[in-house]
Amino acid sequence: MSRRRTPARAAQAAPRCTVTVCRGCCCGTGKVPGVDHEAQLAALKAELGPIAQVRAVNCLDACEQANVVVVQPSAAGRAAGGRPVWLGLVNDPDATADITAWVGAGGPGLAEVPEILGLYAFSPSRRVRRAVEEG
User: Fold this and answer.
1) In the beta sheet, which residues pair with residue 87?
2) Contact 74, 51 (CB under 8 A)
3) CA distance 10 to 126
4) Confidence (pTM)
5) Which tens digit of pLDDT belongs to each residue from 72-128?
6) What is the rounded CA–CA span in Å between residue 3 and residue 120?
């Protein structure tokens, strides 16, 4: 019996970017007014679902940057030198669209961070970063 992967199985197992969306005490709540938080998460899942893992988490402990999105590289992106990119104040549909376009182009390590998203990038504390990037 052959243990070779069929193309369909190989595609399912292909490492993908992970997009982590904070939906805790500040992000995704009325504490950030004027944002349709449910629509933002739905748009990320709809656009990226076929090409990336999109997950919502309770709190990324970077409340001063609400809404926070972390884009982690795929295995290929990491091998090319990509590292997780933390984006804060992601509070408008254009920013969400910019994230989906970047991840669609390959994300960290495979596609340059668009200049506009560079304005959203920030560095969380090592403790916070380690907890998210290892989990």
Assistant:
1) 69, 121
2) no
3) 35
4) 0.84
5) 999 999 999 999 999 999 999 999 999 999 999 999 999 999 999 999 999 988 777
6) 45
Secondary structure, 3-state, the chain: CCCCCCHHHHHHHCCCEEEEEECCCCCCCCCCCCCCHHHHHHHHHHHHCCCEEEEEECCCCCHHHCCCEEEECCHHHHHCCCCCEEECCCCCHHHHHHHHHHHHCCCCCCCCCCHHHHCCEECCCHHHHHHHHHC
pLDDT tens readout for residues 22-67: 998 899 998 999 999 999 999 999 999 999 999 999 999 999 999 9
Cα distance between residue 89 and residue 80, in whole Å: 27
Pull the structure tokens for residue 81. Answer: 């030198």
One-letter amino acid of 51:
I
Cβ-based neighbour number of residue 116 at 10 Å: 11
Task: Say which residue the tokens 């989990």 belong to.
Answer: 135
